[in-house]
């Protein structure tokens, strides 16, 4: 029997970008030791107070159906957090609770795209972005950014691709590059969205992980609150990746229609998880505690990789990754990552998993404890130097 064009078109019959990750996990399942630097998964569990709240809520019986848009108390808590951080008046009616940030991104695209609409997103991009757009019926259109610009997008490049587009998806702090978009960049994109009539979808799941500069939500810019949908979650900020607790923030009318989507998809999230989310949001100090190791490891990566031949560490202003330019080795990111896994049992994501603009790069998740991370980075740097030397000798 033939499946739908929609479901078969999510990856267009090709890779979803996670091939090396799946290979590394298969090696681990087979009993091999792998230093895994592929995914943004914390090396610590969810904080105990959050787990205690989850357990208490479940054993108290909060295991039945909940309202599809999310518990009113949690929607209010998210709204208060967003208003405090951005200065934009935000009510519970501006918030939809979703099954993680990924479901928030899907809901946003579904809300504003009709089948065949062009949907802009920046390259490099988180690996799910094109598939999410296709799943919503849209046509993904990449707009490249450049390493020499620190992967900050240029408004004229977006303008050149904007004809006939309906949406622009951005992500700051950025995964995979670590770029934090500055005010001038965001103001240029906002002006373009207003003039072109674009919806702006802003993925802000790393808003607590800013090492340089300041995170600015584009929803806070003039004339943008009515055309911006913001995806957020507790996954990165509170080490709750498996709890799948996220949200979308936007105009009340859009959120009301997205609640209809929740009714026919997730039908709401478990009440005991939402109760735990309330506890998480009640202690702002947890956010700094969860973020601190990644700032420290960003600095560790700088120390280990500074001046090493065969690679260049790009400045990381935020998020939990290091982006390495390994083009001096003469290898693509994909070939280098596969060879590194074979030679040293170190798994890192090839830049090509995140788009053409990241070709010849490697994304390293700073998600091992400091000692093992330093060991992995030292081995990676030595491998890059030897590979670059061989490439130079054969040139």
Key terms for this structure?
2 domains; 42% helix; alpha/beta; seven-stranded mixed beta sheet; Aspartate Aminotransferase, domain 2; 395 residues; 13 helices; five-stranded mixed beta sheet; 12 strands; Aspartate Aminotransferase, domain 1
Task: Kindly name the structural category.
Answer: alpha/beta
Give me the side-by-side strand order of the main sheet: 2-8-7-6-5-3-4
What are the secondary-structure elements, in order, as H or E?
HHEHHEHEHEHEHEEEHHHEEHEEH
Report the strand count.
Answer: 12
Q: Total domains, how many?
A: 2
How much of the sequence lies in strands comes to 5-15%
Which CATH C-level class of the largest domain is it? Alpha Beta
Helix content: 40-55%
* CATH architecture descriptor name of the largest domain: 3-Layer(aba) Sandwich
Low-confidence stretches: none
- By DSSP (H or I, 4+ residues per run), the number of helices equals 13
Distance between the termini: 52 Å
- In CATH, the homologous superfamily of the largest domain goes by the name Type I PLP-dependent aspartate aminotransferase-like (Major domain)
Large-scale geometry: globular
Largest sheet: 7 strands, mixed
The mean pLDDT is: 96
CATH topology value of the largest domain: Aspartate Aminotransferase, domain 2
Computed over alpha carbons, the radius of gyration is 21 Å
């Amino acid at each position: 029997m033939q499946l739908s064009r929609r479901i078969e078109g999510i990856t267009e019959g090709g890779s979803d970008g996670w091939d090396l990750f799946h290979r590394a996990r298969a090696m681990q399942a087979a009993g091999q030791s792998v230093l895994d630097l592929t995914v943004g998964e914390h090396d610590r569990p969810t904080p105990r107070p959050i787990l205690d709240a989850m357990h208490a809520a479940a054993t108290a019986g909060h295991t039945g159906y909940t309202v599809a848009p999310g518990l009113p108390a949690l929607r209010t808590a998210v709204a208060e957090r967003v208003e405090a951080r951005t200065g934009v008046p935000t009510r519970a009616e501006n918030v939809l609770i979703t099954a993680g940030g990924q479901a928030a991104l899907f809901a946003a695209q579904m809300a504003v795209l009709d089948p065949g609409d062009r949907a802009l997103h920046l390259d490099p991009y988180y690996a799910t972005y094109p598939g999410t757009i296709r799943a919503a019926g849209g046509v993904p259109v990449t707009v490249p950014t450049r390493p020499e610009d620190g992967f900050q997008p240029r408004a004229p490049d977006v303008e050149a691709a904007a004809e006939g587009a309906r949406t622009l998806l951005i992500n700051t702090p950025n995964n995979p590059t670590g770029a934090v978009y500055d005010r001038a960049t965001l103001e240029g994109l906002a002006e373009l969205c207003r003039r072109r009539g674009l919806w702006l979808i802003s993925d802000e799941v790393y808003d607590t992980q800013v090492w340089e500069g300041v995170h600015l939500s584009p929803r806070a810019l003039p004339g943008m609150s009515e055309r911006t949908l913001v995806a957020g979650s507790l996954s990165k900020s509170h080490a709750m990746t498996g709890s799948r607790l996220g949200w979308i923030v936007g105009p009340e009318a859009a959120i009301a229609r997205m609640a209809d989507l929740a009714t026919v998809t997730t039908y709401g999230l478990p009440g005991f998880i939402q109760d735990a989310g309330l506890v998480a949001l009640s202690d702002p100090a947890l956010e700094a505690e969860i973020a601190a190791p990644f700032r420290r490891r960003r600095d560790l990566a700088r120390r280990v990789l500074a001046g090493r031949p065969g690679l260049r560490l790009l400045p990381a202003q935020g998020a939990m990754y290091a982006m390495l330019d390994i083009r001096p080795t003469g290898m693509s990111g994909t070939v280098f990552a596969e060879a590194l896994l074979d030679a040293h049992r170190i798994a890192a994501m090839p830049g090509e998993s995140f788009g053409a603009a990241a070709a010849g790069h490697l994304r390293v998740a700073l998600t091992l404890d400091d000692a093992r991370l330093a060991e992995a980075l030292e081995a990676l740097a030595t491998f890059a130097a030897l590979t670059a030397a061989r490439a130079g000798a054969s040139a």
